[in-house]
Amino acid sequence: MTSRFQVVEQGPPIEVFQKNKLFIDDSFQNKVNLTIGAYRDENGKPWVLPVVRKVEKQMAADETLLHEYLPVLGLDQFSNASVSMLLGEDNPVIASGRAFGVQVLSGTGGLRVGAEFLRRHLNYNTFYYSQPTWENHHLVFVRAGFENPRTYRYWNAKTRTIDFDGMVEDLRAAPENSVVLLHACAHNPTGIDPTHEQWEKIADVCEERKLFPFFDSAYQGFASGDLDRDAWAVRYFVQRGFELVCAQSYAKNFGLYNERVGNLAVVVADAALAPAMKSQLTWVVRAGYSNPPAHGARIVATVLSDKQLFDQWREHIKMMSSRVIQMREALRAELIKLGTPGTWDHIVKQIGLFSYTGLTPRQVQHLIEQYHIYLLNSGRINICGLNPGNVRYVAEAIHDAVVKFPGDDEVYAKL
Fold first, then answer.
1. How far is CA 194 from the centre of its chain?
2. Which of 257, 285, 296, 345 has its CA 20 to 30 A from that of 359?
3. Residues marked as catalytic
4. Which residues face 212 on adjacent strands?
5. 393: CATH
C-alpha cells in the first residue's frame, strides 16, 4: 500500500540532544558529557534544589490544591513575582502598570509567544540574532512567521572576545522596526557578555535606528549568583524608556527543566495599552497550547513570595554559580600546567553555564572518538559537566587534540 506520508523527508537531528544520547549509549567508563545545558553537582549528578524539594512537600500536603486549568495567561502570582525579579520590585514601571507578565512554557515558549505577537500585531518581519547564538532562536522566530532573519556579528574567533565594532556596525545597518534578540546575561554559547558601557552603546544604536529589543533571560541569578547584576541590561533599557519584551526561564536557576516554567515580561509606554495586548496574547497562547501547567509555576511563585524561602534559593544559586567559576579556573589551570598551545584566559573571563572554548570541529571529533568526551561541534562546552574527578582528564584530552590538530581557524570561524 502506498502511503501519502512517503513525501515526508528525514529531518536533521538536533545536535545537542543527539550528542547527549551518544553519551548515554556509550559504555566507556570515563566518558564525559559536556553537551546539554543542565547543572550537575561535583559528582556529575543532577541536583534538585533543596528549597524546591521543601515547597513540593508542602504542596503535596496541601489538600486544597487542585488540578484545575489555570487561566490562559497563567498564574498571576507567578507572573507578577517574575516581573518584579527581572525589573526590581521598586521599578516605577511596575507601579505605573506599564509592565506585566504572561506565564509561558519556559524560555522557548516565551520567545515563541512574543515573536508571534510582534509578527501578527505589529507586523514586524525582520529579526536580528547574534552570530553565534542558541540554535533555537532562528527556528522559533522563523516558525512564528518572521521572513527576514539576519545576524549581527558577536564573536571574534581570533581574539575570543566580542566583536563589538562589528555588532554595532550591523545593528546600525538594520532597518527600522527590526526586532533585535539580545541575551540578558551569560550569552549562549560564548559566555561573553557586553560591559555596561557596551550595553549603553547598544541602547544608543537601538534608539537611533528605532529597533525593538527582545531580551532572552535564561540565567538570571545562575550566571553570577547575583539577581540584580544579571538583570542589569534589561533594567537599563527600561530606564532609558524602551518598550520591550523579555523571555524568562526558570529551567536553570530553579532546576525545573522539565516543568517548563517561564514568563514573558512586557514593558509598554502607556499602561492603558496593556488590556488590549493581554487580550491578543490570550489568543496567541490559546492557539498554541491553550494554557500553561501549574506545578512549576506554583513552586517559583511560592519561593519568590516568601522571604525565608527566597533567601534560601539565593544561597542555592550562589553555590551553583560558584561551582561553575571554580571549574572554569580549574580547567584553565590544568591547560596552563600542561603547556597547551594557545591562550586559555577566555575560559575564566566568560560567565554562566557555557564556554566557547575555541576548539575546532576536527579537535572536537578527536575528543569524542578518542576520549569519549562529548561536546558540540562549535566547541561549546557545559562547564557543569566538569568536576574534580574529570577536569584533568578533559584538559589532557584537549591538550592532545590541540597539539595533533592545530589551526583549522578558517573552518571554525564559519560555524
1. 15
2. 257
3. 134, 216, 252
4. 179
5. 3.90.1150.10
Measured between alpha carbons, how far is 165 from 223 in angstroms, rounded to an integer? 25
Helix (H) or strand (E) holding 180: strand 179-183
Q: Are residues 252 and 346 in the same domain?
A: no
Distance CA 160, CA 341 (A): 15
Residue 156 CA from chain centroid, whole number: 20
Radius of gyration of the chain (CA): 22
pLDDT, mean over the chain:
94
Q: Which domain does 144 fall in, by range?
A: 69-305
Query: Is residue 413's pLDDT more than 50?
Result: no
pLDDT digits (tens, 9 = 90+) for 345-363: 999 999 888 999 999 999 9
Secondary structure letter of residue 49 according to DSSP: -
Sheet holding 99-105, edge to edge: 99-105, 261-267, 244-249, 212-217, 179-183, 126-131, 148-153
Structural domain includes residue 2: no
Residue 151 lies in a domain: yes
Has residue 8 been placed in a domain? no
Please tell me whether the overall predicted TM-score, pTM, comes out greater than 0.90 for this model.
yes
Question: Which amino acid, one-letter code, is at 12?
Answer: P
Question: d(Cα 302, Cα 59) in Å, to the nearest integer?
Answer: 10
Cell of 132: 553565534
How many domains would you assign to the chain? 2
Segment 245-260, tens digit of pLDDT: 999 999 999 999 999 9
Interval 99-157: pLDDT, tens = 999 999 999 999 999 999 999 999 999 999 999 999 899 999 999 999 999 999 999 98
Same domain, 92 and 125: yes
Query: Considering the domain boundaries, does residue 180 fall inside one?
Result: yes
Residue with C-alpha cell 532562536? 137
**Which strand (E) or helix (H) includes residue 374?**
strand 373-374
In this structure, the answer to whether residues 137 and 194 fall within a common structural domain is yes
Residues in the chain: 415
CATH code: domain of residue 222: 3.40.640.10
Same domain flag for 301 and 326: no
**Same domain membership, residue 35 and residue 135:** no
In DSSP terms, 249 is beta-bridged to: 262
- Beta strands 373-374 and 32-33, pairing class: parallel
Q: How many Å apart are CA 93 and CA 329, to the nearest integer?
A: 40
- CA gap 360, 156 in Å, rounded: 14
